[in-house]
Amino acid sequence: xxxxxxxxxxxxxxxTILLDTNHTVLKKAExxxxxxxxxxxxxxxxTTEQVSEIINRIKFSSALMDFGKCDLxxxxxxxxxxVKQSVFAEIESIVSDDCIIASNTSSLSITSIAAAxxxxxxxxxxxxxxxAPLMPLVxxxxxxxxxxxxxxxxxxxxxxxxxxxxxAKDTPGFIVNRLARSYYGESIRIYEExxxxxxxxxxxxxxxxxxxxxxGGFKMGPFELMDLIGNDINYKVTETVWTQFFYDARYxxxxxxxxxxxxxxxxxxxxxxxxxxAETAIKPEAxxxxxxxxxIFMRVISMLINESVDALYLKVASRDDLDSAVKNGVNYPKxxxxxxxxIGAEKVLxxxxxxxxxxxxxxYRPSVLLRKMVAEKKKxxx
Length: 382
Ligand SMILES: NC(=O)c1ccc[n+]([C@@H]2O[C@H](COP(=O)([O-])OP(=O)(O)OC[C@H]3O[C@@H](n4cnc5c(N)ncnc54)[C@H](O)[C@@H]3O)[C@@H](O)[C@H]2O)c1
Known about the structure:
Helices cover 51% and strands 8% of the residues. The chain has helices at residues 2-11, 23-42, 48-57, 81-92, 110-114, 150-159, 176-179, 181-193, 202-214, 222-229, 231-244, 255-262, 290-313, 319-329, 336-343, 345-359, 368-375, and strands at 16-19, 58-61, 72-75, 100-103, 123-128, 137-142, 164-167. Nicotinamide-adenine-dinucleotide is lined by residues 1-2, 19-22, 25, 76-79, 87, 104-106, 128, 130. Nicotinamide-adenine-dinucleotide (NAD) binds at residues 1-2, 19-22, 25, 76-79, 87, 104-106, 128, 130.
């Protein structure tokens, strides 16, 4: 992630230092950045002169002392709180009091990182999506100890980096990693139940993937997407979000995914996940039943919408930022609150109530705001 973020910063015109304590990784990052820029010239995105200016703006370093004159530092090291806290304390001893220190963490609370700092008011989350140069979304996350003006300041600063910026409360998963959980979780649950006659094995995965692409217009089905992200990463994110929400049933991980993780069936990168990626593998055929697909879609989209409505209710982010985050961070065809308006809050609520009554599980409890919107016949966009 660090190399990608450095590429974005240098391209935006900033003199940038890419630091890694591991020399081999640093050398590889330098080679791969140079190769990327060669490709960008070939594609006509930049001229050779522009690229050499950008590369000259990047200094590759292994010495933290080089950060002495920096105005902004974005940390993207190993996802370990103790390691991050110790590196942040070390950085603070080198930089000026005005330097902003940000973390790209996906799952740790910004407040917990800032707790180890002398000046927690200058600590903030700046969360890029992978690959940073291609994904437009950046979540900016002030902690409860961050200077109140800093998030807006970072937002206007980063808009010059050609990114779409959203501001999120320091809560587990921030926006995208929280909202997107049910795309995977509910799809796996539908599969595990063999709901409405969905077959087991790859035909079942293919059926659910097809339904969500065909009816919902999602670019990738949940099982294809989990295999692309990696079932190791996806499982860990789910587990972390669930734990940090004090084991709220809404975010509960599934045994199906845990077993894939244990079997090292990480997905595309390991050659197998939900699907088999061997050259000889036979592509499973989905059950292309539109009535079934509509039911699958309604069950999954209702859970996604409920999550977004609840995030709005709990002031995790604004309406526009919640919708922008899923469109720009996970390529959803629509924002979830807009989708709620389009489908009708009443239909979403009745789907959830139906599941809640059927399963008697907390997981399906509708957000209080969704019930209020239905009772008052209101829309999110009017
Ligand atoms: N990979 C993703 O898709 C993704 C997306 C968003 C956010 N993030 C977050 O970004 C951070 C980095 O993730 P990654 O996937 O790039 O990890 P990674 O393991 O690929 O890279 C981390 C790098 O940090 C270096 N490092 C470790 N300790 C260091 C130290 N003390 N000083 C300097 N360098 C050190 C390592 O040598 C390694 O090259 C994590 O906090 C992760 O949660 C990752």
